[in-house]
Amino acid sequence: MQKPFEQTAQRRQKPRQRTRLRSGKVADMDGGFIIDCQIFDRSEKGARLRLAEEQILPSHIRVFDDERNILSAAVIIWVADKDIGIEFLTGPGSVETDGKEHAALGGRYYALKKKS
Questions:
Q1: 64: β partners
Q2: pLDDT at 59 over 60
Q3: Which of 15-29, 36-50, 72-86 has the highest mean predicted lDDT (pLDDT)?
Q4: Which run of H or of E encompasses 6?
Q5: pTM confidence score
Q6: What is the DSSP secondary-structure string of 10-64?
Q7: Which of 58, 62, 52 is nearest to 83 (CA)?
Q8: Apex 42 CA angle, 100 and 3, nearest 5
Q9: For residue 47, is it within any domain?
Q10: Is residue 2 part of a domain?
């Protein structure tokens, strides 16, 4: 029997690229901050995220990559404890951040619109 990680690797559509550990932030589709994360194994199509703690997330999220200053819309494909696999969505939800969003997300102290 194969381990879940091995099964995922075999289904991958694009080659993954190991990345040095990068910090990021997970938000809902309205921009409400949910949790901090670390970004692993990024590919053109998706990434593996490790959440700061176990968290129930909506199926569609936005991920801010602190290093690249990019806010990407994504759908969650799998969950294993604090790790989640995401597939990036194309379109209006994935944008390079402008100065205002970067100031809100990119610094040591960050803020997004409060969740209602």
A1: 25, 71
A2: yes
A3: 72-86
A4: helix 4-11
A5: 0.68
A6: HH-SS--B----EEEEEE-TTS-EEEEEEEESB-SSEEEEEESS-----SEEEEE
A7: 52
A8: 140
A9: yes
A10: no
